[in-house]
Specification:
The protein is mainly α. It is about 75% helix and about 0% strand. The model has no long low-confidence stretch (mean pLDDT about 75). It is built from 5 helices and no strands. It starts with a helix and ends with a helix. The protein is globular and about 45 Å long.
């Protein structure tokens, strides 16, 4: 299996963990998959970093890209932060380019 496909699977599993258990859920999935983040002092510190990055991404969100992505995949995201992660994913950008051809 290609490295990119494995990365996409890990990303989707962590996204599912985020949706069901919040940041702790996503970190639990990462731990289960043996994905080692940079050294951290606590889960709270990591959660804070994650929330800051998501907040910054939401400020810089490309709403038209989000709408195009939702139309392309036929799904409307309930959680904007997940939509932002999808819109910034290289896989979705490639899919969008292919759909224009």
């Amino acid at each position: 299996m290609a490295t990119k496909a494995l990365a996409d699977l890990a990303e989707s599993a962590m996204g599912a963990g985020l949706m069901t258990g919040g940041v702790d859920g996503a970190l639990h999935v990462a731990k289960y998959l043996r994905i080692k983040p940079r050294p951290i002092q606590s889960l709270g510190e990591t959660a804070e970093m994650f929330h800051l990055r998501i907040a910054q991404a939401m400020i810089n969100a490309d709403v038209p890209a989000q709408r195009r992505t939702e139309t392309l995949i036929g799904y409307k995201f309930r959680v904007q932060s997940i939509a932002i992660l999808v819109v910034t994913s290289e896989a979705i950008k490639q899919l969008e380019l292919l759909s224009r051809k």
